[in-house]
Structure formats: C-alpha cells, structure tokens
Automatic annotation (TrEMBL):
<feature type="binding site">
    <location>
        <position position="85"/>
    </location>
    <ligand>
        <name>a divalent metal cation</name>
    </ligand>
</feature>
<dbReference type="InterPro" id="IPR002678">
    <property type="entry name" value="DUF34/NIF3"/>
</dbReference>
<feature type="binding site">
    <location>
        <position position="355"/>
    </location>
    <ligand>
        <name>a divalent metal cation</name>
    </ligand>
</feature>
<comment type="similarity">
    <text>Belongs to the GTP cyclohydrolase I type 2/NIF3 family.</text>
</comment>
<comment type="subunit">
    <text>Homohexamer.</text>
</comment>
<protein>
    <recommendedName>
        <fullName>GTP cyclohydrolase 1 type 2 homolog</fullName>
    </recommendedName>
</protein>
<feature type="binding site">
    <location>
        <position position="123"/>
    </location>
    <ligand>
        <name>a divalent metal cation</name>
    </ligand>
</feature>
<feature type="binding site">
    <location>
        <position position="84"/>
    </location>
    <ligand>
        <name>a divalent metal cation</name>
    </ligand>
</feature>
<dbReference type="Pfam" id="PF01784">
    <property type="entry name" value="DUF34_NIF3"/>
</dbReference>
<keyword id="KW-0479">Metal-binding</keyword>
<dbReference type="InterPro" id="IPR017221">
    <property type="entry name" value="DUF34/NIF3_bac"/>
</dbReference>
<feature type="binding site">
    <location>
        <position position="351"/>
    </location>
    <ligand>
        <name>a divalent metal cation</name>
    </ligand>
</feature>
<dbReference type="InterPro" id="IPR036069">
    <property type="entry name" value="DUF34/NIF3_sf"/>
</dbReference>
<dbReference type="GO" id="GO:0005737">
    <property type="term" value="C:cytoplasm"/>
</dbReference>
<dbReference type="GO" id="GO:0046872">
    <property type="term" value="F:metal ion binding"/>
</dbReference>
<dbReference type="InterPro" id="IPR015867">
    <property type="entry name" value="N-reg_PII/ATP_PRibTrfase_C"/>
</dbReference>
<feature type="region of interest" description="Disordered">
    <location>
        <begin position="1"/>
        <end position="20"/>
    </location>
</feature>
Length: 397
C-alpha cells in the first residue's frame, strides 16, 4: 500500500486568493527549488511547450507525460503540467502530430496546457527526489551519494575609484560575491594603471596619443561558474572603460551538499528480508514489485538510495560503509558481480515507483511558492501509473 500521507497519489488544494499566476511565475518557483544548473549535462529540463506569460489557475503533476497523463491534465482543466521525465530529450527531430511525442505536444498546445519538466536537477536538489525516497523508506537523507562539486570563478578587475561601488553593485546583482552565508563579499586595494589611447579610441579618461596614468582600485570577488557570462555582462556594462582590464581564474570550494542519491541511517535496524518488505509496502504498487539481492537475514542499518536507474553507482557503494543500496532498473551481471565481490545488499524497485512520490513534494513546492507570492493556484497530483510493465509471472514451481 502506498503511503499517501507522505506523498499523495491524488490531491488537490487551493491557495489563498490573490493576483493571477503565470506560467513564468510557476517556473520561477520550480527553478528556485530545483535549480537548472544542477541538471546533468545530457539532460533537457525546463519548459517544453507553453507561453510563460499565460495565466495559470491549475497545475497538474505526474512522473511522465504519456497520452493518458496529457488527456487527464486536459480533463482536469489544468493550465500547466509538471513532470519529472522530459518528453523531448533523446534524438527528437520532429514534433509532427503523427508521431507519438508530437501528438502529445500538439494536444497540449491546442488545449492551452504548458508542459514543464524537472529531472536530474530535481534528483540532485535538496530537498528533492532522493530526499523524498529516503524519508519514505525511513532513511535519514544524509550526504549525497555523488556530490556535485561547487565550481567557482575568482574575478579581478581594475576600475576608477569613483566607479568602484557601482561596478560592485552590478556584479553582486548578477550573482557574484556570495561565500557561504555571506553576500557582497570582495577584496579591493589601490593600484596605478596606465594606457595610451590610439587615434581610433574614445577614452573615458585621457586623450588620444597621450600616455595616461590613473589611480584605480582593483576589486576581487568570487562567483559560481554557472553565472560567469551573466557576471561578465554586468561587469562590461557597468565599467566606464571601452576595454576594461579583468581576469577570471577557475577554482572551486569543494563538494556541495547537493547531488545524486542520499546515504543515511535506517530508523530501525532490520533484516534485508524485513527491509525489502518495508520498501514494497511504502512505495507505490507496481507489477514489477520489489526484489533484493544478498543474504535475506543480513542486518540493515545504513542505506544508500538513488531514485531511478542507479546501477552506475554499484562500484561506488561497494566501497562505502552501507548495508544496502536501493535503486531501480538493475541488470543481472552488474548485480551478480557486485554481490559475489562482497558488496552490500541491493534492492531493486520499479523506476516509476521510486520517483513518483516526488510529485507530491513538487506540488507542495508550487502551492507554497504561489501563496508566498500572493497568487491563486490549484495543484493536483495525477494518480495515473505510468510504469510500463503490465504483467509479472513467476511461472509454475
């Protein structure tokens, strides 16, 4: 039985009255909770179809955008459908209405339903898909199984003293200068610059052909690498010179608290047999069910989870202090070799079952976010099972 208290299979709620929300408002809330920069490089997250300026009164949530899900969203009079798995990701060259994916896109557009996906960015975010899975199974969602390194740039720029404050304001507004719990962080010191403008130059200071020496300030700050071009644009716009002098050095601040998977303690130590039964009871029911590899009587105290397909982490968990790894879409040979090499126990769930509980979390994120902005919105988690497997036969004894 699926634990509806932790993540409802079908729920609907209305926020307090206020100004109409737009697709763009909902996107803003989703991207604040599940930042796009956390997505894997191969992923395709964000708005698939729809107009960001269109009003939204009703947002529906599902794991996949199948024909049945699209039809239900339309029937529920949803203005926006948010899913986990991107509809258009692999080898898409057409959305013609006579193709499976194109049929869905055309149907949604004709009925004014915007489509948005949050995939691996929602997997890595905190709280995200993996936190939801861990908590549902009674596992404290601790450190990520694969943390994302926090990539930083160290910037340095020289600027006339009279323009230093306005330049700092500009780059800080673009996202620079944040270090831990501190913002607008920078170093600065006095320097002397020199230059000789050519006849073609239009200098802010000095005259063509004349050597100019200027008392300036060098400002140094850090910024996340993902906002490099935004910071560069702000710097160039705010700097008074035609050709400002600046440098960027790549660095990093170690690993972040976000990333794929979670590792934590099980609330009550139990055998693998008991834990597999708990996983089966707490996740949504599927024909695929739940299967486990390892000694059924081994004790499980510390668990790693990775929602969706996670066999690429088998080598990693083999070298970790964990008693069990819970994931989906596992294959015969990798699991067999992992167990025979002395690796931890493994529990394999249906892909859909390990990720669907997130839909309830995402609905709560949008509902709260819209309330904070004074908007009126209804959220509904669609109770359509999109797991593709329909028959499971163990055969005769």
């Amino acid at each position: 039985m699926f634990n509806t208290a932790s993540s409802p299979t079908s729920s609907s709620s209305r926020a307090s009255t206020g100004s109409p929300a737009t697709v763009g408002d909902v996107i803003s809330v989703m991207e604040a909770a599940y930042p796009p920069y956390l997505a894997e490089s191969w992923d395709a997250v964000g708005l698939v179809c729809g107009d960001p300026t269109e009003n939204v009164k009703h947002v529906a949530f599902a794991l996949d955008c199948t024909d049945a899900v699209a039809e239900r969203a339309i029937a529920e009079n949803a203005d926006m459908l948010i899913v986990h798995h991107p509809l258009l990701m692999r080898g898409v060259t057409t959305v013609a209405a006579d193709t499976p994916k194109g049929r869905i896109v055309h149907r949604l557009i004709r009925h004014g339903v915007a489509l948005f996906s949050a995939h691996t960015n929602a997997d890595s975010a905190r709280p995200g898909v993996n936190d939801c899975l861990a908590e549902l199974l009674g596992v404290t969602p601790g450190e990520p199984l694969r943390p994302i390194e926090e990539a930083l740039d160290k910037w340095g720029v020289t600027v006339p003293a009279s323009d230093a404050n306005s330049l700092k304001d500009a780059v800080f507004h673009a996202g620079a200068g944040t270090v831990g719990d501190y913002t607008e962080a920078a170093f600065e010191f006095d320097v002397t610059g020199q230059f000789r403008p050519t006849a073609a130059a239009d200098p802010h200071i000095g005259s063509a052909g004349e050597l100019e020496r200027v008392e300036e300030i060098r400002v140094e700050f850090v910024a996340q690498r993902r906002v490099r071009e935004k910071v560069r644009g702000a710097l160039l716009k705010a700097h008074p010179y035609e050709e400002p002098a600046y440098d960027v050095v790549e660095t990093h601040s170690g690993t972040a608290d976000v990333g794929i998977g979670r590792v934590g303690e099980l609330d009550t130590p139990m055998t693998l047999r008991e834990f597999a039964e708990r996983v089966s009871e707490r996740l949504p029911h599927t024909v695929w069910g739940v299967r486990a590899a390892g000694d059924p009587e081994s004790m499980i105290r510390r668990v790693a989870v990775s929602s969706g397909a996670g066999d690429s982490f088998l080598d990693k968990v083999a070298g970790m202090d964990v008693d069990c790894f819970v994931t989906s879409d596992l294959r015969h040979h990798p699991v067999d070799e992992h167990v025979r090499a002395g690796g931890c126990a493994v529990i394999d769930t249906a892909h859909w079952a390990s990720e669907f509980p997130w839909c309830g979390q995402a609905a709560d994120v949008v509902r709260r976010g819209m309330e904070e902005r004074g908007h009126t919105v209804t959220t509904t988690v669609l109770d359509i099972q999109t797991d593709p497997w329909t028959i499971h036969s163990q055969g005769k004894n």
